[in-house]
Amino acid sequence: MTEKISGYGKIADRVPPHAWFGVSAVFHYLGPSFAVLLFPSVGVLGVAWFRVASAAAVFCILTSPVRVFRESTWMGRGLLVGLGLCLAVMNTSFYLALDTLPMSLVAAMEFIGTIAVALYGLRTGRNLIALILTVSGVFVLVDVVWQSDPWGLFWSTVNAALFVGYIVLGHRAAAEGADRGVERLGAAMVIAFLALLPVGIAQAATVFTNSYLVLAGIGVGVCSSVIPYICDQLSMSRLPRGSFALMLALLPATATIIAAIVLSQIPTLRDLIGIALVMLGVAMHRPAT
């Protein structure tokens, strides 16, 4: 069988997994920052459609989704469908939450669901201290006025729950190495596109004649769902699931910094203290051996 994609495993081995995670963390919220700017022109569901549709198109070029699905076992197909549906609903609920809540808060809530995953992977007292520091930092980042928008919180909670599903399913996809993981990710993204097609196509279609907005929507997809998800696979293929989950504490800090630069959501002293605690905790953590 001739593989359409190769070389990711070698790339993953040559660069420390923490570096791949760092790239993923930046693009994980850089893309959504640009997406928020498109909400008034394209609509929340339309931007979500552009994100998944453009990512699926790129993965069709990089991988062979149909072949991967056809040659998978029934259990493997279940993994692809589960990951695809998870990506579709998670990305949509994420944007619905961002429409009414600050990005740093949505990111902090994403991390809450990963605490259990990180706890499961603990093996040493040092890592327990690291977890305590990172959790403390995340909760410092959560503003006390967060209960003022229950609808936004609902979508943020849905996104946070599915983010845990993404970690678990994504790690299983990467279990046989980065090459296989990226191939499975491509098939899952096509399934996500098919699931989201009837939901966001109406809003997205209203701007199909505007080349600027179409290109912006494609850019959101590449920044949000291609670069970070591939980097996640490169990182997941080498990091234990618990270690990867703990490193996700960097996401609220990254979101706060990017929101300040792109959306002018300037962090407070409290935010900076939370970021410092998160980074200290992640720096202390050591993968279980």
UniProtKB/TrEMBL annotation:
Swiss-Prot/TrEMBL keywords: Membrane, Transmembrane, Transmembrane helix
Boundaries of every EamA domain copy: 151-284
Keyword Transmembrane appears in the UniProt entry: yes
GO cellular component: membrane
Pfam assignment, any one: EamA
TM region(s), chain numbering: 20-42, 48-66, 78-97, 103-121, 128-146, 152-173, 185-205, 211-231, 243-266
Protein name: EamA family transporter
Species name: Pacificispira spongiicola
